[in-house]
Amino acid sequence: MNNILITGATSFIGRNLLRCLLENGNWKVFAVVRRGFDSKKLPLTSRYLGRMEILELNMDEYGRMPERISVPCDACVSLAWNGTRGAARDDHGRQMDNYRHSMECVKAAGILGCKKILLAGSQAEYGIMHGMTTEDSDCIPNTEYGKAKLRLYQEAMQWCMDRNISLKEPRFFSLYGEGDNPDTMVISILKAMLKNEPCKLTRCIQTWDFLHIEDAVRGLMLLLEKKCADGAYNFASGDCRALREFVEEMRRVSCSESIPEYGSVPYPSTGVVNLCPCAGKLQRETGWSARISFSEGIGRIIKSMEKKAEDEKDIGVDSYL
């Protein structure tokens, strides 16, 4: 059995990856969570006893991980990051803290003996994109978040190369799925559509690409388990089209009578972001391909929302919907 260290274990990606690793049966997981974490976000069932240990450490304590883990680790997945949404994305101090703490995580993983590190990246590293985006496209980030992510990747890559440690950076574009943050576009718009409420939106003329979390986690598992090239890997479905088409597809799948109010929300000062990523490297190196269509993914989210509403109704909690 291999030992793996995961930071950000209660995040959207972390929870789904953790569940997959535990169900796989070949991994013992050291799940690093913030102090005072919500235990409901982790799969704490008797099925996984002995195969998961929880370490409560804040990001500024990552240098202490080798003190808390008494056995060598084979791999590390670094997912933790503070301030990925809203104004925090341009908070220079916060993003530099993320960079420093994540670099400490990489170094701690090296001390623990990890020979493979997956470092969560972002489409924000590319900045304003024009046309198809591959891993060879220029990286000109226009947010502090993107700059910090890119700096971390570049410095961690050099650090790992000097020590013969494999480092891969999955660059996530737009993930979605059951249990995602309620403030994301997909979840917030679906909630309004299921209530037949108006949906306030930008003009939605930008090109977009959505990748379901299950497909993303499968890609991460392949990067962990297969021998493949180091470096950045775009994580995207390849279904690139105008965002307005996705909104209309959500309306069809949800059978909603909502009226999308296109143009009622202005674009940010950083400009219109168009996503047209190519995940060809991930496909070539691992054999991966996206399996879940956007319609299927939206249907899954709706079922999840409806089940949650029923469960909350049964225990007397105000409905999520």
Describe the structure.
Residues 4-234 form the NAD-dependent epimerase/dehydratase domain. This is NAD-dependent epimerase/dehydratase domain-containing protein. There is one protein chain. It is globular and about 55 Å long. The protein is of the alpha/beta class. The termini are far apart. Strands 1, 2, 3, 4, 5, 6, 7 and 12 form an 8-stranded parallel beta sheet that branches. The protein has a domain at 2-172: Rossmann fold. It has helices spanning 12-24, 65-68, 92-111, 144-162, 185-194, 213-225, 243-253, 280-286, 294-314; strands at 2-7, 27-33, 52-56, 75-78, 116-119, 121-122, 166-172, 175-176, 199-201, 207-208, 211-212, 231-235, 241-242, 260-262. It is 37% helix and 17% strand. It contains 9 helices and 14 strands.
The largest β sheet comes out as: 8 strands, parallel
CATH architecture field of the domain at 2-172: 3-Layer(aba) Sandwich
Query: Roughly how much helix do the residues carry, as a percent range?
Result: 25-40%
- Strand percentage lies at 15-25%
Mean pLDDT: 93
- Write the CATH homologous superfamily of the domain at 2-172: NAD(P)-binding Rossmann-like Domain
What CATH calls the topology of the domain at 2-172 is Rossmann fold
Overall structural class, as computed from helix and strand content, comes to alpha/beta
Rg, nearest Å: 20 Å
Overall outline: globular
C-alpha end-to-end distance: 42 Å
Low-pLDDT regions? none
The count of β-strands is: 14
InterPro entries: Epimerase_deHydtase, Lipid_A_modif_metabolic_enz, NAD(P)-bd_dom_sf
Pfam family, one: Epimerase
Protein name: NAD-dependent epimerase/dehydratase domain-containing protein
Domain NAD-dependent epimerase/dehydratase: 4-234
